[in-house]
Design goal:
The chain is α+β, with helices and mostly antiparallel strands. Among the domains are: about 55 residues; about 180 residues, no CATH class. It has a 4-stranded antiparallel sheet. Strands 2-11-7-8 form a 4-stranded antiparallel sheet, with no helix packed on it. Strand 7 and strand 8 form a beta hairpin. Helix 2 packs antiparallel against helix 9. It is extended, with a radius of gyration of 30 Å. InterPro entries: CDC50/LEM3_fam. This is Cell cycle control protein.
């Protein structure tokens, strides 16, 4: 008797919801629904794929390798790691207007920024401006924590390997050089510049680095990364932020500058150009390559033919499967559906 009373107490209310008597609808996936559905989805995918592919093909890209591996390369003399402060010049020609806004990238190949030990070799507290970690870098920075008994700021493998080639672009007009203005403002992610990385609250910034040393392979300390703009120094330097956001693949490009100002706001006119390169970054020791890439963008972003091809393939498969299902249905349909 007691057991029956306990079961009655624990029993859900006798309602349509608790007793699962609510009305329900279950779609019946018949051939009349599935086959037209596949056709419509396939046609939609094909339309999107054609739009993406045509748009991607319209994007202009110019890639120039300046590694200097070949003997006839203009940067061959600079590829020798024993040669310091080397400058080489690469000439190229543009046949038609390279429409703006134009983006200027540097590219590296066979460079594994996604290697785990490399990726964790930094001190997040130090990079957020905490002065305590200027004197005592975290163990994660090994082996670039100290140099000559002094702490390295910023420490770690990522910062130490920062890309430091610099570029100047000139248009050649009647034998004279006209410099193309390169805009380096706002090339880093907003979250990196405003949230993730911060400079210490010390004025002048140089005083925060007292008793520390710069990374081993840096030509100048962090507070002098951009001598022309005092607001673009320290851990919020745009080039530094771009480098610290690691690439996922071994062949990658990173944004260096934009070409959006002056006479070149509409792009690079047809003509002859010279790219002057301060060659500082060695890559031949690990069989790497260095390139510069000029590219414009569209509503879909940068050049990416894979996305359009993927949509075309999936759309074609949907249409093909709808034809196969139609043939199968016409041949083996159930008697009651005749």
């Amino acid at each position: 008797m007691v057991k029956q009373e306990q079961e009655s107490t624990n029993r859900p209310d006798n309602t349509a919801f608790t007793q699962q008597r609510l009305p329900a609808w279950q779609p019946m996936l018949s051939a009349g629904i599935v086959i037209p559905g596949f056709v419509l989805i396939g046609l939609a995918f094909i339309g999107i794929g054609v739009a993406l592919f045509v748009t991607s093909r319209s994007i202009q890209v110019l890639e120039i390798d300046y590694t200097g591996f070949e003997n006839d390369s203009p940067c061959f003399k600079c590829s020798d790691p024993d040669v310091k402060n080397c400058i080489c010049k690469v000439d190229f020609t543009i046949d038609s207007l390279f429409k703006g806004p134009l983006f200027f990238y540097y590219g590296l190949s066979n460079y594994f920024q996604n290697y785990r030990r490399y990726g964790v070799s930094k001190d997040a507290n130090q990079l957020s401006g905490d002065l305590k970690y200027f004197k005592e870098p975290g163990d994660t920075c090994a082996p670039y924590e100290f140099a000559n008994g002094k702490p390295i700021v910023p420490c770690g493998s990522i910062a130490n390997s920062m890309f430091n080639d610099t570029f100047k672009l000139y248009q050649i007009v009647n034998g004279s050089k006209k410099q193309v203005p390169l805009d380096g403002k706002g090339i880093a992610w907003w979250t990196d510049y405003n949230v993730k990385y911060r400079n210490p609250s010390v004025t002048p910034l140089k005083d925060a680095f007292n008793g520390t040393v710069k990374p081993i392979f840096w030509p100048r300390p962090a507070y002098e990364l951009d001598p022309s703009d005092s607001a673009n120094n320290g851990f919020i330097n745009q080039d530094f932020l771009v480098w610290m956001r690691r690439a996922a693949l071994p062949n990658f490009r990173k944004l260096y500058r934009r070409i959006t100002e002056g006479d070149f706001a509409q792009g690079l006119p047809a003509g002859n150009y010279a790219l002057e390169i301060a060659y500082n970054y060695p890559v031949l020791s690990f069989d790497g390559r260095k390139t510069v890439v000029f590219s414009n963008v569209s509503w879909m972003g940068g050049k990416n033919e894979f996305l359009g091809i993927a949509y075309l393939v999936m759309g074609s498969l949907c249409v093909f499967m709808s034809i196969v299902m139609l043939i199968v249905y016409a041949k083996f349909k159930f008697p009651e559906e005749e």
